[in-house]
Amino acid sequence: MPRWKAPDLPDGPLRELNRALHGLHGRAGWPSSRDLQKAVGGQDVMSYTTIHQALTKPLLPRWGVIELLVEELARMSGGRRRPDDTVEHFKELYDRAYGAGEGDGPVPRAPDTPAAASATIGPPSSVNRTDEQANWIGSAPQGDRSGDNGQRVDALAELRRRISDGNYPLGSTLPPQRELASELGVSRLAVQRALRSLQDDGWIMSRQGSGSRVIKNGEVERATNPGRSHHPVSLAPYIAQAFEQDDVSLDVFTLTSESLTAHIQLQAERIHALQISPRSITLRVMVPDMSLAFPYWRSGDAAHDDALKKRAADITRRHLLTLHNVMNNVYTSMLVPSVWFTIHQIPLVPSFKLYLINGVAALHGFYEVVERPIDLNGETVGALDVMGLGAALTYHVEDDDPHSQGSVFVRNARGWFESVWQRLADQEGHG
Q1: 94 or 428: which carries more pLDDT confidence?
Q2: Has this prediction a pTM greater than 0.85?
Q3: Which end of the chain is more exposed for a tag (fewer CB within 10 A), N or C?
Q4: Within 13 Å of residue 360, how many CA atoms lie on the same side as its CB?
Q5: Could you give the CA distance from residue 341 to residue 121 in angstroms, rounded to a whole number?
Q6: Distance (Å, rounded) from C-alpha 220 to C-alpha 418?
Q7: What are the structural domain ranges in the chain?
Q8: Chain center to CA of 5
């Protein structure tokens, strides 16, 4: 009788992935979470709670966790290993289950969560830590950067910064892996895993023999004087600074959450790598009800328009699911004592994005409407779209002068967000 019970799921790609992982775990002899934690590099690489979640829960953590577990479980299987017990096979299963490719099956939702509608993680008081868990957290070596996972976090952060800052512009090819490893002072394996994370997040496209090409460039250049509200700035440094505080508070109004998800993933990786240790995280996200009529994603052809709208809805749902999983992993890792995360739909089509940071600062940017070709199931369609990842952001901060430009903007933005959250946000979600 197996020592571990696989999640009971309906037929579909997520069940197939879970069953495959469960079977590989059995062929490896049902190693414990503790044994697997030691095998993949110890507590500075992965918590045993994350491993337990990956092997027993329906919604799996980010691909990097599954990749490490598959590598180690396949090694432990020895002579019982099957031909499809490979990282490549499990990546295909993972992509089908979590919608990496258009039309590759349904994107699983968070439990009891209508697609892209309303999701909550918390309250933190429901978390019960055992003495063993509390001791592990208390004795974790702060700032230990040994091991490929810690190096991967460093390499990933630096590569994302260089892409966002334009050092590697859109369409350019990244330097070879050996050159990057030498330049960044990390192992080649760490570079490979960092590049795989960038590809999973849609920042680069990698082809064997052709290198890695930049296909997404983050936000815009970092401001030389971020205190002035009229300078365009990058989201990255402000999110990073927010997560370096004891108490993190983010209120976000966005179209698809694509930019937000990428930056929250990076901060979660810093938390798991013990680079930062916030005491609490509160994240509230408002996205539009995707059943609304949008002026974007239109081509003039009704059949194409329906497909373009579905494509946008799938992108939104996929990123919200990723965001939910990332925050849930932070919550269950017990590295942050208090985590509160809520998503609500609202009946508004965004013409701008807004980030309220720790209650005293705001990043604001308009969605510019553009006409561009969009790949729609292998067919190139000219359509109206919006610049989300490239939207120019301006920075505003509340200071001691209540009449200053920054103070007025932040105060008004905060009041607007609260009014919409309280009066328009869908508190129940959609069936």
Answers
A1: 94
A2: no
A3: N
A4: 12
A5: 5
A6: 28
A7: 13-108, 148-214, 232-423
A8: 28
Q: Convert the pLDDT of each residue in 342-400 to its tens digit.
A: 999 999 999 999 999 998 999 998 988 888 887 777 778 788 887 665 567 888 998 88
Just give the CATH number of 148-214: 1.10.10.10
User: Tokens standing for 248?
Assistant: 């993190």
Nearest CA to 93 among 167, 19, 185? 19
Q: What amino acid occupies position 84? A: D
Q: What is the 3-state secondary structure (H, E, C) of the chain?
A: CCCCCCCCCCCCHHHHHHHHHHHHHHHCCCCCHHHHHHHCCCCCCCCHHHHHHHHHCCCCCCHHHHHHHHHHHHHHHHHHCCCCCCHHHHHHHHHHHCCCCCCCCCCCCCCCCCCCCCEEECCHHHCCCCHHHHHHHHHCCCCCCCCHHHHHHHHHHHHHHHHHHCCCCCCCECCCHHHHHHHHCCCHHHHHHHHHHHHHCCCEEEECCCEEEECCCCCCCCCCCCCCCCCEECHHHHHHHHHCCCEEEEEEECCCCHHHHHHHHHHHHHHHCCCCCCCEEEEEEEEECCCCCCCCCECCCHHHHHHHHHHHHHHHHHHHHHHHHHHHHHHHHCCCCEEEEEEEEECCCCCEEEEEECCCEEEEEECEEEEEEEEECCEEEEEEEEECCCCCEEEEECCCCCCCHHHHHHHHHHHHHHHHHHHCCCCCCCC
Report the side by side order of strands in the sheet with 280-288. Answer: 119-121, 338-346, 280-288, 247-253, 352-357, 361-366, 393-397, 232-233
